[in-house]
Design a protein that fits this description.
The protein has one domain: Sandwich (Jelly Rolls), CATH 2.60.120. Helix content is 7%, strand content 45%. The chain has one helix and twelve strands; from the N terminus they run βαβββββββββββ. A six-stranded antiparallel sheet has the order 1-10-5-12-3-2, covered by helices on one side.
Length: 151
Amino acid sequence: MILDRFERVGLYFPTNSPYARAVNFAREEAAALSDGVHLIDGDRLKANVESYIPRAVSERRFESHRRYGDVQVMLAGAERQDYSPAANPEDMVAYDATKDVAFFKPLAAFTAVHLLPGWFVVYQPGELHRPGVMLDETSGPVRKVCMKILC
């Protein structure tokens, strides 16, 4: 997992890498897109733009992916995301190959991060994350883009 501000993406990825391209696309172009999935480079790079209200932690599940890495960028609003580097395979509830997502039983140990406008978070395949959690009872709507990078 990497969590940082837009202007620091060059510390982690060369300019021409898919990850830098994803952060820059999300920062510069995604705000003008409608909600939904937008193919940027076929299946190799796509943007999933979402608008929603974060929910209570009890209503969200840990997930991971096998084929795609996530670069999540908050366009407006804020949410908490929980992170864990890995889980035991027996903790998996189900894997959907069509959507490339596995869901997991609740984990006791994780790190909570706040995703704010101007920040990005990168999750590699296999890293567990629980997006869409409200920061507190007053959390309002968010607009976020989840860039999917084929690994």
